[in-house]
Design goal:
Layout lengths: L2 H30 L4 H6 L3 H12 L3 H12 L3 H13 L11 H15 L3 H12 L3 H10 L1
């Protein structure tokens, strides 16, 4: 093959590698846009949260998962992860019935957000509640 032939083959291989990389990163970014299970649970109305907590307390996790999936559209793995978190007693914030520590840190979080320090507010929220970074950022954005 002449020198130009090899050059064209190399260009085609480089183009394929770039295209494959672009497609894979584009796909992974779209997966990250899905809301976390805790964020969806946080938006539930209080009646549904109470029903889920009662079902978990009565050791009816399957019913709790089914109810959560019906109300939020979560997949099975996400709903199970959220119900397992409720069962472990991890706090999932809601608008209507926050625990006492939430009332203590909410003014601080609102002040930090108003000053443009959402990252610091999310870090405080993570430290106090055990949320992961994405959940804390989503909650701070909703304040």
């Amino acid at each position: 093959m002449p020198n130009w032939g090899w050059f064209i083959v190399v260009l085609i291989l480089v183009d394929l590698a770039v295209l494959t990389t672009w497609l894979l990163t584009r796909r992974s970014r779209s997966i990250d846009r899905r809301p976390s299970p805790h964020a969806l649970v946080a938006n539930l109305d209080l009646d549904t949260r109470d029903r889920i907590e009662r079902l978990v307390a009565d050791h009816k996790k399957v019913h709790a998962i089914t109810l959560l999936r019906e109300r939020t559209g979560l997949d099975l793995a996400g709903a199970k992860a959220a119900i397992d978190a409720v069962e472990r007693g991890e706090w999932v914030p809601t608008a209507g019935n926050p625990p006492a520590e939430w009332r203590d840190i909410e003014p601080t979080l609102r002040d930090l957000k108003a000053e443009g320090h959402q990252g610091r507010a999310a870090k405080i929220l993570r430290d106090r509640t055990g949320m992961d970074l994405r959940e804390a950022k989503e909650l701070v954005d909703r304040l």
